[in-house]
């Protein structure tokens, strides 16, 4: 592996995002081959140099496979379907690693889906207590008033317990041309089955179409429905940093901001 700037090496290893890694270096918490490095220009090789943060060796990200897919509607979020429907494995072809989908996205929903063979990261990102934010854009029936939005923020009793949205805003208000359909964008941190549909149904605005536009640090930029790509190294670093923050938040018992 070629030498790279230390802050990039740290970011790629999932220690922290690049800016935060720079701050960590400036604080004098990083050593390369036993010497404290406090400047930002220094280069290092994670394979051949011994890089330590707070006395702990920083290891290279193991070579897992990470794919972001824009799951199209009418595709099941499993590798095999008992009803012979099209699955995400039919969409992501030619990948030899044993990747699987992280979290679920309904058959009729589309949007961001992470697929990986990195079980630890997948588990951290989907654990209910990890509080990883997921942003959805939902086309709904009717025009939600402030009361409905407030109820969703305050929390609603569903059949499997109370649930709420972290944030919700109306992006398009229903009118004659849209046949009375509005569009809302909302953030949830849980991964319960059909959660967004059930929440919106509960306030009288059933979902007509649902798209996930963000899953943690991942979005749909550069993709089309059915399109997918491998994450870049820096994105893998960010994803793993996100997973590790989720793990810590879960242990501390608070969701991510
Ligand atoms: N909420 C839903 O209702 N469906 C999804 O696919 C994801 C979240």
Briefly characterize the structure.
The protein is of the alpha+beta class and 257 residues long. The protein has helices at 6-12, 18-26, 88-91, 119-126, 146-154, 195-202, 233-252, and strands spanning 4-5, 30-32, 35-36, 43-44, 51-53, 56-57, 66-71, 100-102, 110-116, 134-141, 156-158, 161-163, 167-172, 181-188, 207-215, 218-219, 228-230.
Describe the structure.
The protein folds into 3 domains: 4-57, RNA-binding S4 domain (Structural Genomics Hypothetical 15.5 Kd Protein In mrcA-pckA Intergenic Region, Chain A, Roll); 66-128 and 218-252, Pseudouridine synthase I, catalytic domain, N-terminal subdomain (Alpha-Beta Plaits); 133-215, Alpha-L RNA-binding motif (Alpha-Beta Plaits), CATH 3.30.70. With 257 residues, the protein is of the alpha+beta class. It is 25% helix and 28% strand. Helix 1 crosses helix 7 (233-252). It is globular, with a radius of gyration of 21 Å. The longest helix is centred in the last third of the chain and has 20 residues, at 233-252. Strands 7, 8, 9, 10, 13, 14, 15, 16 and 17 form a 9-stranded mixed sheet that branches. A 4-stranded antiparallel sheet has the order 3-2-5-6, with no helix packed on it. 32% of the residues are buried. Bound molecules: uracil. Uracil is lined by residues 105-106, 109, 194-197, 210.
């Amino acid at each position: 592996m070629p030498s790279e700037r230390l802050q990039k090496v740290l970011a790629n290893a999932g220690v922290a995002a690049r800016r935060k890694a720079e701050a960590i270096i400036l604080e004098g918490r990083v050593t390369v081959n036993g010497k404290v490095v406090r400047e930002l220009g220094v280069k290092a090789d994670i394979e051949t140099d011994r890089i330590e943060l707070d006395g702990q060796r920083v290891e290279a990200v193991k070579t897992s496979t990470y794919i972001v897919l824009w799951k199209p509607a009418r595709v099941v979020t499993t590798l095999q379907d008992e009803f012979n429907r099209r699955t995400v494995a039919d969409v992501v072809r030619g990948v030899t690693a044993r990747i699987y989908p992280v979290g679920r996205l309904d058959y009729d929903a589309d949007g961001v889906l992470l697929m990986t063979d990195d079980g630890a990261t997948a588990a951290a990102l989907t654990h209910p207590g990890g509080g990883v934010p997921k942003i959805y854009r939902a086309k709904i029936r009717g025009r939600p008033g402030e009361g409905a939005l407030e109820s969703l923020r305050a929390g609603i009793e569903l059949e499997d317990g109370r649930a709420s949205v972290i944030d919700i805003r109306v992006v398009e208000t229903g009118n004659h041309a849209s046949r009375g359909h509005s569009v809302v964008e909302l953030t949830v941190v849980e991964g319960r089955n059909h959660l967004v549909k059930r929440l919106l149904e509960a306030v009288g605005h059933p979902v007509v179409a649902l798209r996930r536009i963000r899953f943690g640090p991942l979005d749909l930029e550069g993709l089309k429905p059915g399109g997918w790509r491998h994450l870049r190294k820096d994105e893998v670093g960010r994803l793993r940093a996100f997973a590790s923050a989720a793990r810590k938040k879960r242990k501390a018992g608070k969701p991510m901001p």
